[in-house]
């Protein structure tokens, strides 16, 4: 599997992929779609890449002008691959890599983010608790992009949280939801 950055200052840089069974990266077409939704809002944004894997989404954001990205993954091989990729793309000074469970990270961080990318393993769908904690981590007007397999009941996951789905895009078996704070929250 070959991953690369598609646009910006690190365009065409290849990314190291962690050697993890079941690892799958966001397809290039889905990544392009996501960043066309974000548009200019990426410039100067503070980003969080949860379940970061190779760091593909966060590094793409940095390449397109984001000010900062925190990469979080609970797997040692992923954290190593992300460090290598951040260094290779020249974003060491604009990022941090944390080896930690996503729920624990979000529960403990005081940073507020403009953009949050979440691309967990598709069989890991118990994210209600994570979304409840994300309410403290998303800036007003911020956006969460949540990747999952087709058929996941996102309304059930978001029940009793501050969030709602405002758009959904499907690419084969992959789906991502664009999630924002409900009006009035």
Automatic annotation (TrEMBL):
**Which InterPro entries does the record cross-reference, listed alphabetically?**
RNA_MeTrfase_RsmD, SAM-dependent_MTases_sf
Provide a Gene Ontology MF annotation, just one: methyltransferase activity
- A Pfam family of the record is Cons_hypoth95
Q: Gene3D superfamilies recorded for this chain? A: Vaccinia Virus protein VP39
- Transmembrane parts of this sequence: none
Record key words, sorted = Methyltransferase, Transferase
Swiss-Prot/TrEMBL GO biological process terms: rRNA methylation
Its name, as the record gives it, is Methyltransferase
Source species, please?
candidate division WWE3 bacterium GW2011_GWF1_42_14
Recall the taxonomic lineage recorded for the source organism. Bacteria, Katanobacteria
């Amino acid at each position: 599997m070959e991953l690369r950055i598609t646009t910006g200052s690190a365009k065409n840089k290849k990314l190291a992929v962690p050697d993890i069974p079941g690892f799958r990266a966001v397809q290039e077409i889905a990544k392009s779609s996501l960043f066309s939704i974000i548009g200019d809002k990426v410039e100067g944004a503070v980003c969080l890449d949860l379940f970061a894997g190779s760091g593909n989404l966060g590094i793409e954001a940095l390449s397109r002008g984001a000010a900062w990205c925190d990469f979080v993954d609970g797997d040692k091989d992923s954290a190593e691959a992300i460090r290598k990729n951040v260094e290779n793309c020249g974003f060491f000074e604009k990022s941090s890599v944390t080896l930690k469970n996503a729920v624990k990270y979000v529960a403990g961080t005081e940073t507020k983010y403009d953009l949050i990318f979440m691309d967990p393993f598709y069989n890991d769908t118990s994210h209600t608790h994570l979304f409840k904690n994300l309410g403290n981590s998303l800036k007003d007007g911020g956006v969460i992009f949540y990747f999952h397999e087709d058929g996941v009941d996102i309304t059930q996951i978001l029940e009793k949280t501050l969030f709602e789905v405002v758009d959904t895009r499907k690419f084969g078996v992959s789906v991502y939801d664009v999630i924002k704070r409900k009006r009035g929250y």
